[in-house]
């Protein structure tokens, strides 16, 4: 994906509630496939502009993620600007009322800096919340695991895999990889989490050092934009497949990975397990795990097309996602054209 442009968005707005001190950005990218769906991230930003830019990048990624996963949702994201203090019940309730004011155009779920319990509090004010039945982290991890299997063509046992970030997704992924017989290198700023992983036999590394480990797979499971062009030239992994959003700082990084023969699993293709789980919960559908398992074959098809055409995987995934949105637009326009 290229950088987001304001004119391509259905809605981008900043809201502030003086009574509670809550400040949030809502970015709704494209509603062609349905209401925008995406997580609520709470994070400290250096400026409001940085928060808006992050929300827009994440929302654009959600359009592609939902489209590629076959979900009837558009792409959206919201970010709550953290002041470093714990979020309050009043702020969560205010956020829920803001969701109501968006009129159903955005369905929110838990993301970085928020918890399922936080979202349950938001849910007291609105129905436009999902992913509160169970934490989505393990579902995202399962999708990444099957994606890694696809990238390695099923050869997980004995492979050396580095995991950066041991949050709800990263730790669940470590457990799955350990059970499958992988040799692990892990990194996180939280020493307790690192110790939990090393108890499973994982090696420890620094959060920057782990990115350049000599491994079969690098799984970025923290924040995004960690694969810069410079870092893409330095990576020693054979595969990049993790749960972090927007892993490429810019498209050039993906081209460099491709030129170097490093297999990149497009982030919104491999990390869709959480939104599939949350989306199915919201819609009342069954069969979410089968759709999460389909992440593997979907990535295998992307890798096969890349091998056949010589195109980078991120270019192929973007084209597939955009084609799904364009097909729906064409379908929606057909009746009007027929009447005319």
Which whole number gives the mean pLDDT? Answer: 95
What percentage of residues falls in helices of 4 or more residues? 40-55%
Instruction: Give, in order, the helices and strands.
Output: EEEHEHEHHEHEHEEHEHEHHHHH
- Any idea what the radius of gyration is? 19 Å
With helices defined by DSSP (H or I, 4 residues minimum), what is the helix count? 13
The description of the largest β-sheet is: 6 strands, parallel
Strand order of the largest sheet: 8-7-6-9-10-11
Key features of this structure:
single chain, 13 helices, Rossmann fold, 340 residues
Structure report:
- The protein has 13 helices and eleven strands.
- It folds into two domains: 6-65 and 73-123, Leucine Dehydrogenase, chain A, domain 1 (Rossmann fold); 137-314, 3-Layer(aba) Sandwich (Rossmann fold), CATH 3.40.50.
- It is α/β, with parallel strands linked by helices.
- A six-stranded parallel beta sheet has the order 8-7-6-9-10-11, sandwiched between helices.
- 46% of the residues lie in helices and 17% in strands.
- The model has no long low-confidence stretch (mean pLDDT 95).
- The longest helix has 27 residues, at 313-339.
- It starts with 10 loop residues before the first strand and ends with a helix.
- Helix 4 packs across helix 5.
